[in-house]
């Protein structure tokens, strides 16, 4: 690959203490990976940064394998097949896979999914038509199971998952309230996504705001934040409420498990159900879910926002921004041009 430039990768330089910092990572250059027989050489176009990645930075994660010091940072990506020694995959195809935070990757067809670039913008394959969209779909429809007329509260509602989850609840005929961390995000939820109300948990007393936004109590909680926000919501749940535990971003920077919440008695007295889930719990239903999400997106029933920064070297800062409230919608890094540029390796 004499004409191909050097690979650029983001590796873990040190384990974060508390909220990650950009200098916890290091930008390194390495030789271009060379595909062997049956392998595929991919040029990364977009790479995803997601809150769940914080958990993998611990020496002993609660879930999954730890990222070692000096190891390539994990991350799903969308890219172009530049060279394929597998006859089942052509050069120029657009694929999704676990490429990590790097400009080029070598993998196999078994670890790739071909993306239809005509269905929607390529970036959506890592957002509303990817893992975040599927997470919102399953968490809302399979775990929370809202009914028309229910009051649904989504925490972290301006993020990639929360914004989709709230809109899906609206499609079911629910009253939807979102919590987020700024007035601008509140306006986005109500004015652009069609939420019925939004609460800025940083500036509004939660108890008073919830009493106003949810006068008839709460039937469903789609939970992304944890901590005090969840505690306040649990005080207002109705009989047979359903709580879908998707994430707890407020608690990702400590491995100390929080004690049993004082409102666990409320769950019992209200005969409520609280259930955690992961997106891959339902992976056998991905074709069905993706078909529904694609229809909603292409017909305008489901809208989205993306925050895209350019340059793989800016991935660490984009990642840190997830925990300081800088992004609205899906956070992505554009690594290279979307223009197909197949060349002989």
Q: Would you write up a description of this structure?
A:
The strands form three sheets. Strands 3, 4, 5, 6, 7, 14 and 15 form a seven-stranded mixed beta sheet that branches. Strands 10-9-8-11-12-13 form a six-stranded parallel beta sheet, with helices on both faces. A two-stranded antiparallel sheet has the order 1-2. α1 crosses α2 and α1 (131-144) crosses α7. The chain is built from eight helices and 15 strands. The termini are close together. The protein is of the alpha/beta class and 345 residues long. α8 (315-321) links the parallel β14 and β15 (330-334). 41% of the residues are buried.
Secondary structure layout:
Layout: E1 7-12, E2 25-30, E3 40-48, E4 77-84, E5 94-97, E6 104-107, E7 112-114, H1 131-144, E8 151-154, H2 160-171, E9 175-180, H3 183-192, E10 197-200, H4 206-213, E11 218-223, H5 227-234, E12 237-245, H6 264-269, E13 273-276, H7 286-298, E14 306-310, H8 315-321, E15 330-334
Parallel strand pairs: 8-9, 8-11, 9-10, 11-12, 12-13, 14-15
Antiparallel strand pairs: 1-2, 3-4, 3-6, 3-15, 4-5, 5-7
Helix pairs in contact: 1-2, 1-7
């Amino acid at each position: 690959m004499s004409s191909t430039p050097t690979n650029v990768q983001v590796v873990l330089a040190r384990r974060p203490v508390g909220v990650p910092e950009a200098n916890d990572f290091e930008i390194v250059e390495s030789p271009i990976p060379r595909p062997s027989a049956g392998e595929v050489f991919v040029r990364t176009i977009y790479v995803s940064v997601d809150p769940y990645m914080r958990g993998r930075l611990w020496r002993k994660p609660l879930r999954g394998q730890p990222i070692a010091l000096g190891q390539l940072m994990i991350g799903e990506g969308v890219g172009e097949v530049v060279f394929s020694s597998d006859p089942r995959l052509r050069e120029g195809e657009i694929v999704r896979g676990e490429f990590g935070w790097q400009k080029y990757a070598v993998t196999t067809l078994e670890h790739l999914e071909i993306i239809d670039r005509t269905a929607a913008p390529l970036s959506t394959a890592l957002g509303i038509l990817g893992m975040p969209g599927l997470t919102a779909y399953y968490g809302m429809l399979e775990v929370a199971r809202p009914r028309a007329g229910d009051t649904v509260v989504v925490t972290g509602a301006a993020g990639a998952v929360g914004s989709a989850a709230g809109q899906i609840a609206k499609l079911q005929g629910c009253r939807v309230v979102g919590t987020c961390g700024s007035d601008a995000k509140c306006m986005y939820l109500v004015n652009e996504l069609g939420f019925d109300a939004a609460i800025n948990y940083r500036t509004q007393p939660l108890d008073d705001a919830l009493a106003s936004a949810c006068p008839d109590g709460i039937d469903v909680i789609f939970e992304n934040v944890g901590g005090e926000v969840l505690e306040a919501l649990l005080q207002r749940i109705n009989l047979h409420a359903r709580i879908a535990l998707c994430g707890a971003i407020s608690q990702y920077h400590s491995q100390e498990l929080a004690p049993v919440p004082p409102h666990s008695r409320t769950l019992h007295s209200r005969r409520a159900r609280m259930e955690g889930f992961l997106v891959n719990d339902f992976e056998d239903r991905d074709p069905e879910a993706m078909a529904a999400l694609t229809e909603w997106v292409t017909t305008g029933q489901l809208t989205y926002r993306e925050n895209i920064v350019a340059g793989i070297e800016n991935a660490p800062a984009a990642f840190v921004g997830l925990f300081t409230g800088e992004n609205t919608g899906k956070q992505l890094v554009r690594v290279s041009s979307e223009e197909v540029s197949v060349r002989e390796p």
